[in-house]
């Protein structure tokens, strides 16, 4: 991989023979675990402007109709998350000369608060071609990471690293995006850094300008968010609530099913993909592969969503099952084949499927990798209940470095397939009602108890020995079984995020607080040592729209699960006012919710919501110490078995997160939205009486 410096440029053809379709990655990390940003892509003509507002792609406009641009969403990494963007350069319209890749922060956040800002570009086989790290970020709320531009028939990349204090509004205006008065007011701060990059083979008019106002034409990134945490509402500017209108209205299914015409509840609706008669693992694998590949070919949005991250272009897709391919003396039969045609060129992949918790076999996958390399296939896609982790491959395969044609090994979890289907039919929409119905039938199939496609469902063979070792206090640091349990816990948390994000239509990602320079293996080893010492597994989830980070702790000694969130107290707010406001926000929360006061980082008074509702003052520290926030927690029993049965550990974690989000987080978020819509009331000048007798009176 070639490391780029600011201002440097390189031709993609010099780095790969197959760079017609690339995957761009934007990543960053945060030691606090709360760093986030939104990515955007702009298509610019020869004048350095967008042809129309439709050339601006961001979270509310994630894909181009011609398949040239597709925002693939966030993927967890060891130190944070990575946003991936699929770019099919062969599909970019001829009058588009530059593709600018940018990111922006909101709510007053700046890029200087993040570490390891980096952009990478990989070819369709997944091989990283180049990387560019930004090390000088400070007060900028929007950043142009880099751009891809035409030079004759060739595409080149230039590392830019240009920041803007004015956020996405300033960037959008520079490149011809119409921003309304509200958007301009929100971004109306002077002082903009335009440290432009240079390119020796670019005309002077196309080179980024020096840092003098007004800034040089650059790339539209994303709109900033004000202290009220609202986004602009102009259709042309990037907003959470609304964005550029698409050409066609998308179809989504209603959240509530229509009333059934059945005579009684025992009747079951006829299903397009029945699963009740599946008995053997082979039957499950054949049926699941055929069902999935068929829906991918018939619903372009869905097929594109699952394959774009693997380097597949947007084009006509055909899928096949039980294909016989020669391999030595005995032909091999992969479970499926995917072929995508665009402009007379083919992208092809072999598919190997496992269901019902069966593990992928290295020898089998190795055979398919060898066949794919000899026959010119671009990828081998494995599909199973397992969730892939960085630094912990599901199968070990060897690649022949002498082969000119390289094959990418990719993995999909059944949980990710269900997540993408749910996002499309419930939240983002598809082209027509028939496509939505097909995806709904696919979801019904995946969720059927006989399909075997239920995602991660087993904590592994080390789960019981580790639990027994913790109970008997015989588990020692360095035990490899503890590392296996930590990996299983991480897979479970990632699956919880996929399921929760699909149901809510929001980004849900695990938070990983790591030290700079640490690896996945060292991080998991440290967590395993903590598990041996403390007997607890812990994880944090960040869900868009939530008032804070959700923490879940599994205490293997007590057999309890604790889900919690910390709610900060606004600076300068009166303690009693904050306590009463919290009780109002939690009016419909469970009575057994535990409320704990945080006093300058320490634990303060605590009690259940049932006891505190009539007496909010009881949660205040008696010595008058300054309150920094409240920790809200729910407790429940932890499943004992390692699987996903009713009494299993995995099921208990799912139930704990669901209950906490629906009964606590959702109420807090709703209360925050109501508060945001109302004008804030002025605080009284003097503190009311804090004597407890006076308060209760």
Describe this structure in words.
It is a single chain. This protein is of the alpha+beta class and 697 residues long. It is 26% helix and 24% strand. The protein has 14 helices and 24 strands. The chain has helices spanning 167-174, 181-186, 281-298, 300-307, 362-375, 414-428, 433-447, 463-472, 480-504, 520-534, 575-585, 609-612, 649-677, 692-696; strands at residues 2-4, 9-11, 21-29, 38-44, 56-57, 69-76, 80-88, 98-104, 115-123, 128-134, 142-151, 154-164, 316-321, 336-342, 345-353, 379-384, 408-413, 508-511, 536-543, 550-555, 560-568, 594-599, 602-608, 627-637. It is globular and about 75 Å long. Mean pLDDT is 82; it is low at 181-247 and 679-697.
Main sheet makeup: 7 strands, antiparallel
Q: Whole-number average pLDDT?
A: 82
Shape: globular
Percent strand: 15-25%
* Contiguous uncertain segments of 5+ residues: 181-247, 679-697
- In total, how many beta strands? 24
Annotation field: number of helices: 14
Helix proportion:
25-40%
Class from secondary-structure proportions = alpha+beta
Radius of gyration: 27 Å
Query: How widely separated are the two ends?
Result: 71 Å
The largest sheet has its strands arranged as: 18-19-20-21-24-22-23
């Amino acid at each position: 991989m070639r490391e780029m410096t600011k201002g440097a440029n390189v031709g993609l053809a010099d780095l790969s023979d197959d760079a017609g379709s690339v995957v761009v990655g934007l990543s960053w990390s945060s030691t606090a675990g709360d760093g986030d940003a939104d990515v955007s892509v702009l298509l610019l003509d020869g004048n350095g402007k967008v042809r129309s507002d439709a050339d601006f792609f961001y979270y509310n406009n994630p894909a181009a109709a011609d398949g040239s641009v597709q925002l693939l969403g966030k993927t967890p990494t060891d130190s944070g998350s990575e946003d991936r963007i699929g770019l099919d350069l062969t599909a970019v319209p001829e009058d588009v000369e530059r593709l600018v890749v940018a990111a922006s922060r909101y709510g007053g956040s700046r890029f200087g608060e993040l570490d390891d800002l980096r952009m990478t570009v990989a070819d369709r086989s997944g091989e990283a071609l180049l990387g560019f790290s930004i090390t000088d970020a400070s007060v900028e709320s929007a950043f142009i990471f880099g751009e891809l531009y035409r030079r004759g028939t060739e595409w080149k990349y230039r590392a830019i690293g240009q920041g803007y204090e004015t956020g996405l509004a300033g960037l959008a205006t520079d490149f011809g995006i119409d921003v309304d008065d509200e958007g301009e007011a929100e971004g109306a701060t002077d002082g903009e850094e335009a440290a432009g990059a240079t390119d020796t083979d670019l005309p002077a008019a196309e080179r980024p300008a020096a840092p003098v106002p007004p800034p040089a034409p650059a790339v539209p990134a994303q709109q900033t968010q004000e202290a009220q945490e609202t986004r602009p509402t102009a259709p042309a500017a990037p907003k959470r609530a609304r964005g550029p209108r698409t050409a066609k209205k998308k179809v989504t299914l209603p959240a509530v099913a229509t009333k059934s015409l059945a005579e009684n509840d025992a009747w079951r609706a006829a299903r397009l993909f029945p699963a009740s008669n599946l008995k053997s693992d082979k039957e499950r694998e054949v049926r699941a592969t055929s069902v999935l590949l068929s829906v991918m070919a018939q619903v372009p949005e869905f097929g594109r969503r699952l394959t774009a991250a693997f380097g597949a272009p947007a084009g006509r897709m055909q899928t096949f099952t039980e294909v016989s391919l020669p391999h030595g003396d005995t032909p091999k039969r992969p479970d499926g084949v995917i072929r995508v045609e665009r402009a007379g060129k083919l992208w092809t992949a072999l598919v190997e499927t496992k269901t019902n918790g069966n593990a992928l076999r290295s020898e089998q996958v190795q055979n398919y990798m060898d066949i794919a390399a000899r026959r010119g296939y671009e990828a081998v896609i494995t599909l199973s209940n397992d969730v892939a982790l960085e630094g912990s491959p599901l199968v070990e395969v060897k690649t022949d470095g002498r082969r000119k044609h390289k094959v990418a090994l990719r993995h999909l979890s059944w949980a990710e397939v269900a997540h993408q289907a749910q996002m499309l039919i419930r939240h983002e929409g598809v082209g027509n009602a028939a496509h939505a119905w097909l995806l709904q039938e696919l979801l019904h199939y995946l969720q059927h108890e006989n399909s075997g496609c239920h995602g991660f469902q087993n904590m592994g063979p080390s789960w019981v020995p580790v639990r027994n070792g913790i109970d008997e206090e015989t588990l020692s640091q360095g035990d490899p079984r503890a590392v296996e349990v930590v990996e299983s816990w991480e897979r479970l948390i990632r699956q919880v995020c996929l399921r929760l994000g699909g149901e809510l239509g929001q980004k849900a990602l695990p938070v990983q607080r790591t030290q700079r320079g640490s690896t996945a293996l060292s991080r998991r080893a440290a967590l395993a040592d903590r598990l041996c010492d403390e007997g607890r597994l812990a994880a944090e989830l960040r869900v868009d729209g939530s008032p804070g980070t959700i923490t879940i702790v599994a205490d293997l000694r007590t057999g309890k699960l604790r889900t919690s969130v910390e709610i900060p107290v606004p600076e300068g707010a009166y303690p009693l006012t904050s306590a009463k406001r919290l009780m109002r926000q939690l009016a419909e929360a469970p009575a057994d919710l535990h409320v704990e006061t945080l006093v300058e980082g320490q634990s303060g008074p605590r009690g259940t919501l049932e006891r505190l509702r009539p007496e909010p003052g009881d949660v205040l520290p008696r010595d008058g110490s300054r309150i920094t926030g409240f920790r809200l927690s729910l407790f429940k029993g932890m499943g004992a078995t390692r699987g996903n049965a009713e009494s299993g550990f995995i099921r208990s974690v799912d139930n704990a997160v669901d209950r906490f989000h629906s009964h606590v987080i959702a109420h807090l978020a709703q209360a925050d939205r109501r508060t945001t819509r109302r004008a804030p009331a002025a605080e009284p000048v003097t503190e009311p009486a804090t004597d407890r007798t006076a308060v209760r009176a």
